[in-house]
Write a structure and sequence with these properties.
This protein is α+β, with helices and mostly antiparallel strands. It folds into three domains: 95 residues, no CATH class; 80 residues; 160 residues, D-amino Acid Aminotransferase, Chain A, domain 1 (2-Layer Sandwich). The protein contains twelve helices and 15 strands. The strands form three sheets. Strands 13-12-11-10-9-14-15 form a seven-stranded antiparallel beta sheet. The protein has a six-stranded antiparallel beta sheet with strand order 5-4-3-8-6-7. Helix 1 runs antiparallel to helix 4 and helix 4 packs across helix 12. The protein starts with 5 loop residues before the first strand and ends with a helix.
């Protein structure tokens, strides 16, 4: 039996479903505005923190005027020029079409990238199913919502421990949801007496410390070319792509190299970024988070002499990957290159992308600025 609930006002009866149809869209719109506002404020706090740590000169009045006028001509009312000041200060190059992170995350991506299905689609445990035909790091075991899997079969904690004891390779354990900036990405090996090389934790202690929703993979052995730039970290390629109609456009690409003795390559953790030309060759100089511009790696190799092995295969992989998830029109991809010089898909970033890639390469959208802004304006109408 179905029960209907009615409210009476001025002699008129309203049922629950009618009220729900009216108020649900209003509540959802309010929720979106609150999320957008929170993202915007976080970006503003972030840029104030960045500019407080690096000596960044202010923009001139004329430069600010040019920025505001340029974005206004595209139908966008910028609230500040903080990010233009930052990118201009650390690169020494002023461009009106730099993309501010607050606008990018809280507004543009809000309309171009799907948010309803977003949390589940970026679970690193699911990428092996979504992108099954692409080369990825070898999985040792997964934990999904507290359930352990080995070769897609549910296993107990004890079975996983026994399995890990047999692995002699370098391993990586990392969370599969709520991730970013290399947080809790740990490289380790299984040593004697069932202990790991990470803080001398036992296998059991390490697994219980991560609790649930994580993955253990065999560490990728990278190409000799990329390893030569820093052997302690897996140095990966970050590519930002945009999908439009049937075409995937590669907007910008950079090589991320870890700091000395670091195991991760994140820019925010002291690594460096070197832009990649369309040919696959590195640019002449790289950038640090502190604003330093360098021409050689920590291992004393000139960037201008380095070319990404089989870069054309990296570009082909990105095009194929993006077509698998058209829910997101702009995606940042992380790709490694293994010892066989083949690209290996590591992970992808959607609604919380960082766009520091503008530091080595210039404005993110390049020649496609008008195309992307037109897409954004059209998406806002729905």
């Amino acid at each position: 039996m179905v029960f209907e609930f009615y409210l009476k006002k001025d002699g008129v009866m309203f049922n629950y479903h009618s009220i729900k149809e009216v108020f649900t869209p209003m509540i959802l719109r309010l929720r979106c505005k609150m999320i957008s506002y929170n993202l915007e404020r976080n970006c503003v706090r972030h840029i104030k923190d960045l500019t407080g740590k690096v000596d960044i000169p202010p923009l001139t009045s004329e430069q600010k005027k040019q920025v505001y006028q340029f974005y206004a001509s595209k139908g966008v009312k910028l609230k500040n020029t903080y990010w233009h000041r930052y990118y201009t200060g650390v690169t020494g190059k002023f461009h009106v079409d730099y993309v501010p992170l607050d606008f990018f995350r809280s507004d543009l991506l809000f309309h171009l990238n799907e948010r309803i299905q977003w949390p589940s689609l970026i679970d690193k445990n699911l990428t092996y199913h979504i992108f099954s035909e692409f080369l990825q790091p070898k999985v040792i075991c997964k934990n999904v919502n507290g359930f352990f899997f080995i070769n897609n079969k549910i296993k107990s904690l004890e079975e996983v421990i026994v399995h890990l004891k047999l692995i002699k390779s370098d391993l990586v354990i990392k969370p599969t949801i709520r991730t970013g900036r290399g947080h809790n990405v740990i490289c380790f090996k299984i040593s004697s007496n069932d202990f790991t090389t990470y803080k001398k934790k036992s296998i059991r202690e390490l697994l219980l410390w991560f609790n649930k929703d994580f993955i253990i993979q065999k560490r990728v052995e990278q190409s000799n070319v990329l390893e030569s730039l820093n052997p302690t970290s897996l140095n990966t390629i970050r590519v930002v792509s945009y999908i439009h109609t049937k075409e995937v456009i590669l907007l910008s690409s950079t090589l991320r190299i870890g700091a000395l003795n670091a195991t991760i390559d994140n820019f925010s953790s002291g690594g460096i970024m070197c832009g990649i030309k369309h040919s696959g060759k590195l640019r002449e100089s790289a950038h640090t988070k502190s604003g330093e511009i360098i021409s050689k790696s920590f291992t004393n190799i000139s960037f201008k002499d380095v070319e990404i092995p089989n870069y054309h295969l990296v570009k082909e992989m990105i095009e194929g990957l993006h077509k698998k998830v058209p829910y997101f029109k702009i995606i940042s991809w992380d790709i490694a290159v293994n010892k066989m010089e083949k690209p290996v898909f590591m992970e992808y970033n959607t609604n919380y992308q960082g766009i520091e890639i503008q530091i080595p390469n210039g404005p993110l959208f390049g020649d496609h600025f008008d195309l992307i802004l037109e897409d954004y304006q059209n998406s806002k109408r729905f």
